[in-house]
Amino acid sequence: MKGVILVSILLNIVLLTIVFSGVDLLQSTAIATSPTVLLQSNRLPTVSASDAPMTLSLKKNLNINLTATVDWEELNDNINAAVRSDGYCSRRNAMTRAAAMVAGVSALVASSPGYTAETKHVKMGVGLNGSDVGWYVPDVGYLTFEPSKISICKGDTVEWVNNVAGPHNVVFDEDAIPVGVSQDELSMVDKLYEVGDTFTMKFDVAGSYGYYCEPYRGVGMNGLVVVG
User: Fold this and answer.
1) Distance CA 167, CA 221 (A)
2) CA–CA distance, 28 with 59 (Å, rounded to integer)
3) Are strands 141-146 and 119-127 parallel, antiparallel or unpaired?
4) Handedness of CA 52, 58, 59, 60 (dihedral sign)
5) Percent of the chain with pLDDT over 70
6) What stretches of the chain show up as alpha helix (H) in DSSP?
7) 209: which residues sit within 8 A by CB, 6+ positions away?
8) Residue 216: what are its φ and ψ, rounded to 5°?
9) If you average pLDDT over residues 60-79, what whole number do you get?
10) Gap between the terminal Cα atoms of the chain
11) Phi, psi of 99 (to 5 degrees)
12) In this model, does residue 131 exceed pLDDT 80?
């Protein structure tokens, strides 16, 4: 029985992933309004005419005991948001919440502000077999951020990892960050000397953030964070 439940969950997460990718067929048939569903213990959930196609599929295919734990109205809202949204971040957040709820996570937890947040990683300095862009240091590598440009969503965190050719740091250009954001609060005060040392920063304001490594700014060690 557990194996059947697991397979059912995985199959439906795959279906939700198709929604996330913006399949035209699902998008054309998504319903704008959300259902109000009354669940009774050990009974199949009520099917509503306002259910999105993916919601209907989940109601028909999930194990009965699992369907009784799902907040179908909240799930349907997230599925519709994933289908309709033109923005990556909106689709990602809605998709993550919907998949979590299908897996048994409560709507309260899945809807919390930080639940969909991710952490992206940027290398500071790249080895000889890495990027071919940047100032070359013999027997060490390249003085560059890898990747040099990264796109994230509001609430996400970026972790910079001291990789090679240190010391490195992360200093944001006061003329290349959103208005009202403090350069001092974003930037590193010290430098990273040991390989594997990290610096992390959480981004809550949308916009572009240009930054550089102070010791190697002169040779073009610059980066960009785009927050959607």
Assistant:
1) 12
2) 20
3) antiparallel
4) positive
5) 61
6) 2-20, 24-29, 53-61, 64-67, 72-84, 88-102, 107-110, 183-186
7) 172, 176, 177, 178, 181, 186, 203, 224, 225, 226, 227
8) -125, 25
9) 59
10) 42
11) -65, -40
12) no
What pLDDT was estimated at residue 193? 96
Edge-first strand listing for the sheet containing 135-137: 135-137, 141-146, 119-127, 157-162, 198-202
Q: Which residues pair with 149 in a beta bridge?
A: 224
For residue 126, the cross-strand partners are 142
Closest CA to 228 of 201, 200, 209: 209
Amino acid making up residue 41: S
For Cα atoms 104, 108, 3, give the angle at the middle one, nearest 5 degrees. Answer: 5
Across 31-58, average pLDDT? 46
**74, 101 Cβ separation under 8 angstroms:** yes
Report the phi/psi class of residue 153: left, alpha or beta, with left for phi > 0 and alpha for psi in -120 to 50: beta
